[in-house]
Amino acid sequence: MNALRIGETSSVARTQSADLWHVIRLCCAVLLLALTVLPAISRAQMQQHAKPPGLDPAPESAVSAILAAFDRYEVVGMPEAHGLKDVDDFILSLIRNPAFSEKVNDIAVECGNSLYQPVLDRYMAGEDVPFKEVQKVWRNTTQMMCGWSGFFEQFFPLVRAINQKLPLGKRLRVLAGDPPVDWDRVKDYDDRWKFGDREASIASVMGKEVLSKHRKALMLFGTFHLFHGQENSSPSAVSIYERDYPNLTFVISELGVFDTDLPALSSSAFARWPSPSLARAKGTWLGALELGRFIPNPMSIDNDCNVHRVEFPKSLQKPMEDLVDAFLYLGPQDLRLNEQLPADIALDIDYRMELARREALPETSGVTPEMLKGNREWNAEIVNSASTPLFVVPDMKGVVQNCLDRKNRSRPQ
To answer: Strands 217-220, 106-113: parallel, antiparallel or unpaired by DSSP?
Structure first.
């Protein structure tokens, strides 16, 4: 979802724009995390619809199928680090497989600020780079979720460790796909919009560093960046570079909210599938389903906390087999686990101060280290999250209540 450019200069307009930024960020987060919300009964009703025509999907061993895909394709793209621990754990097991470095040269990541590519290259080469400097790669992107991600806290050190076990010619290069943002220079609201086009940035990195050099790469990005066939006003990164490099990318999607809220595990369409599995989409009833069966239409919330249904662009209103090549199955959909917030992030007061500053732009956050240290409510949320580790599609009522609470706190007394 592309950011809107807002050029108002009056204080009223800037206040409205700041509120709109909260709405935009909420919508983007919902899309990226595949946490688009519908009432549970609506999702259950969708599952009961008759299957469309098509063959039954044929599950294959996921790791073997992905490694085999590199024999035919230059790039394999799949989602990562958007809150699903099962997906993250699968990726870590994939890259640890000894055959992976035999097939792949590069790993391109969404959570990587390309400003720090030289630092990242030195770190991955085994040089003595302070970890605080390396953390800027994923903590200083345009996406807040990257800085909170426990997956990338593990991913980058793991790839470095893998490289130390490999000969020079086989070492993996990690490519940062996000635009080169220097947060030290982002001082006001207008600076937010100087981040550049994220899709164009990703496509440029892939074209210059991978495809033009005939290298093989694993792309780890939110699925909306990977969709085929988005040659419109808001194309995906893959669709942009496929204009020059067609038919070279194999796109994998996870299953989103499909097959959730079932009365029993045995009633799942995938009950007999091994885990993890990969199933091709083309020609199957699963591939014939539209995007809305996996990621229901998102909801936006306005300044008055009213909820509005948002239609997908026409280019996305099509069968999944036109958007992706395969589906990744990692076990029962209702038993997926959330990615937990690492302690080193929760306890890093300096970083939380910086995040508060970014959130508050164009104003100052008014947050002090003492406030963060004593923020019992926020700390309690982290502690309490341990009691609900399963991934659950959130209820829109909670989002509305958060909006109302925020409005009440900002209302003059």
So the answer is: parallel
Task: Provide CB contacts within 8 A for 409, sequence distance 6+.
Answer: none
Over range 230-245, report the average pLDDT: 93
Which of the four pLDDT bands, split at 50, 70 and 90, describes residue 53? confident
The pLDDT tens digits for 152-203 are 999 999 999 999 999 999 999 999 999 999 988 887 767 766 767 899 999 9
Q: Is the pLDDT of residue 112 over 70?
A: yes
Which residue do the tokens 């509120």 mark? 19
**What pTM did the predictor assign?**
0.82
- Complete domains list, the chain, with CATH: 49-298+309-335 (3.40.50)
Tokens read off for 97: 């497989």
